[in-house]
Amino acid sequence: MSEVSLVVNGRKVSGAVEDRTLLVHFLREHLGLTGTHVGCDTSQCGACVVHVDGKATKSCTMLAIQASGSTVTTIEGLANGADLHPVQAAFKEHHGLQCGFCTPGMIMTATDMIRRHPEGLDETTVRAELEGNICRCTGYHNIVKAILAASKTMSKASKSKAKKAA
Amino acid sequence: MYSVNYHRATSVADAAKKIKSGDAKYLSGGMTLIPAMKTRLAAPSDLVDLNHIADLKGIKVSGKSITIGAATTHFDVANDEKLKKVCPALSHLASHIGDPAVRHRGTIGGSVANNDPAADYPSALLALGATVVTNKRQIAADKFFKGLFETALKDDEIVTAVTFTAPAKSGYAKFPNPASRYAMTGVFVTKGKDGVRAAVTGAGDDGVFRSKEIEAALTKKFEASALEGVTVPSGSLMGDIHATPEYRANLVVVMAKRAVAAANA
């Protein structure tokens, strides 16, 4: 057993866990943050993607104790109160989900993808970047649409913010 | 996963000390080791995490001479502007390992030390004539890769960096397995001052190897057309449900053509 302490969705958390505890199990079972899903459990499907120190990470392939000292954002930490994050709003608007199981991972991957491509995204890039996220309903078409739309909204928002700042 | 004791190393010396406890293994990005532990293919008693050792991270480019710290992630190798200028083929290779989340954590040192027969980096190191630097010595890539998941590393030895001189030309092409995305065949070609080298991953039944047929053809002319009609023997290639040895032998030539075209582009 070891003591892990990290910041999850802006909140300092700690707990005693077995060293073999995966980050995803710490999030779900110790913190009750069940938005992060376990799909394949073999690092393929991406339902468990969270951000660790700002980077998309498969939380089923990392020990909780490896993340000790890190800052983690899960799907529960994206929205600002009742206001959906632009990526969540775009998934809703474009019906980027069917059964919804892969959605938390898709959205966390999409948010990371948009952050890394401030110049904007095209369909080919989005599809290539979704390599590690599998939708068992095969609903990729609208997922891609939603990500492209969110990328546009977010780049507009950051431009108008930059204008205001100037 | 079986029970395990985790230790976080603060320096290479600290890691070398901590590895002495039980049946310990070094943990880098964990993109192979953690899944292997989950399926109980690996069951170390202790893990020594190398990820928090600052000395092991980062890419140094000085002229044509390149040093990549062992704990540098695939993401950083793929996106380093200086490296992209002098050896774009290596950045290209790193940008196609696994998926974005895997590239955020997986490291070059971990990949090299694991020497998966279908991993991408071993072919690059072999074709680049790279040197693997450890906490004890320097090992030429030619002597480092010893077969399936086997390397010249001693149990307690730590890969600290990979160094090489960027060749005038280099290119990499892989045919990924449609499910795992590991290379079913990947070929890295280089043309430097010591001539042409072509290394193949994903195909050899004893891991990464240099193809003398490809090298001989490309030494005459470093162009895809030089590989027309060239064949490589299938006798020592892997066969599985995805591809027969004969299929892989053909893939070696096809991937070599694409790699040369990329190198000349």
Automatic annotation (TrEMBL), chain A:
Any one GO molecular-function label of the UniProt entry: 2 iron, 2 sulfur cluster binding
Record's protein name: (2Fe-2S)-binding protein
All copies of domain 2Fe-2S ferredoxin-type, residue ranges: 2-78
Pfam families: Fer2 (PF00111), Fer2_2 (PF01799)
Superkingdom of the organism of origin: Bacteria
Leader peptide range in chain numbering: none
EC number: 1.2.7.4
SUPFAM superfamilies xref list: 2Fe-2S ferredoxin-like, CO dehydrogenase ISP C-domain like
Alphabetized UniProt keyword annotations: 2Fe-2S, Iron, Iron-sulfur, Metal-binding, Oxidoreductase
UniProtKB/TrEMBL annotation, chain B:
Keywords assigned: FAD, Flavoprotein, Oxidoreductase
InterPro entries: CO_DH_flav_C (IPR005107), CO_DH_flav_C_dom_sf (IPR036683), Diverse_Substr_Oxidored (IPR051312), FAD-bd_PCMH (IPR016166), FAD-bd_PCMH-like_sf (IPR036318), FAD-bd_PCMH_sub1 (IPR016167), FAD-bd_PCMH_sub2 (IPR016169), Mopterin_DH_FAD-bd (IPR002346)
Annotated ranges, domain FAD-binding PCMH-type: 1-169
Protein name (Swiss-Prot/TrEMBL): Xanthine dehydrogenase family protein subunit M
